[in-house]
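ugh ok fine here u go
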Amino acid sequence: MKGPFSRPGWGLVFAAAIVLVLVTPQHYRNDVHPANESARVYAALAIVQYGTLRLDPVFDRYFPRWRSGSAPPNTDASMVDGHYVLDKAPGVTLVAVPVLAALDACGLDPGAPDAFAWVTWLLTLIISALPSAVLAVVLGRRLGRWGQPAFGWLVAVACVLATHWLAYGGLLFGHALAASLIGLGSLMTLGPIKAGRLDQRMQAFSGGLLLGYAVITEYPTAAIVLAVGLALLADHERRNRLFWVVMGGLGPAIILLLWNTAAFGDPFQISYGFKTNTLQASIIAHGVFGIGAPSLERLSALLFGAKRGLFFVAPWLFMGFVGTFAIVRNQRIALCWRVAVAATVIGFPVLISGFVDWTAGNSMGPRHLLPILPALAVATVSWLSLDDSPRRVAWRGIVAGLAVSSLLVCTVGAWVFPYFDPSVANPIFEVNLPILLDTGFGRTSWDPTGGLLGFVLGLAVIVALAAGVMRNRSKFRIAAFVIALALPILHVATGTLPMTTGQDAGRVVLRERALVYEMNGYDEKASEIRKNLKGRAP
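structure:
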């Protein structure tokens, strides 16, 4: 079905809009260095400015008195032979190195204490936002060919803007880059969604390269890469591509072996075995690098809970979960796609449910599940674009409505303060929403109205695509769209959202609000809350 969104120029428009939306928030300050992101920046600076993998000289520059303490100034560090090195997968750092080297060659000092915020934001733009936009455009074009173009584009763009990806596309974690590489690598590795024989060795090689780099960006994605490889092996029509996929993945594998040798003295040792933080070390010591037997309770919380639930922050993704079961026996879809999607959507959350630290520290949504979102998008479109029966037309309307409401919920989470404390049961509605209503969005890259402008741009993109889905004005689709928009409103209005409980619940929530006020630059409001807490009985 042809439509306005099938024109080639829309890809560039959507890519530019997505990048602008993702990098509108400015979550970084020169006086506050979040451990996860700053460790990656420190490692890249150590390579560029000191020619070493050791973090010690960077610590000396940022924190001159750190050696007199009993712990390093960053908890995400490993120790080897009395020196500190990065305890994360090296993918983000290796991409950051040429960027920082270019800045250094231009006479700028990316390691200056007053440069941390803008340097980290620039790296976020290049490493998190740009790959996310590329994934959305490539996925949108691919899915747009499978039925209705507007619906394919809506699902692809919503995958990034109407999920917790909205937060991680604007942060220098490894999850957005890894998820983008998994999505792009799967598309290139597995080929077209429709069944049929395929060769294209160079495309398979490139797909393997991307999948391999996803693994050295976020180690858990190795499970998804394995699932993609087994899916190819199971498909006799495309099994011949597997050799070239493996060849492509050898490059990143060799890079990781060289990194491990240089950092830890052994190509088969990784950073998780050298953690200095005792709590993190105890987590990793459980099972296989912190992953043990799956837990039904954790799985339920990862999917439906208000604290970290995937479908809580983006309920439209549930259609992808249903679609996964619906497409398994569909012979029109390539077998490798059916196997890979099912293994990813069902198997990966089960695997992560066995992770001891399933809440993943202070973070928004289930960040470890970000790599399954492209597979959920494929499942959603594959299921609902096969025909125009009244039932599928209605479901497409529900997806469109929930994509709009999911954007609203995720914006409240991502743009006020995306570091959710796991002690709060429902951080979006207990902490972020009251602060948004009081002071507006957090710090942005284009103050003072950047938050509003970025939000309006993101909303305009999603609404325009949703309008394209509703184009034929089917009564089934319109009714479904209205119902989908009303669901989150009813959810909030009925007061059934889970809240933090316990004797000290009120103090826990207020302390977190004080922290968010302070991080967003409202020190007086933070001080007022803390002053009241001192004189308040539990």
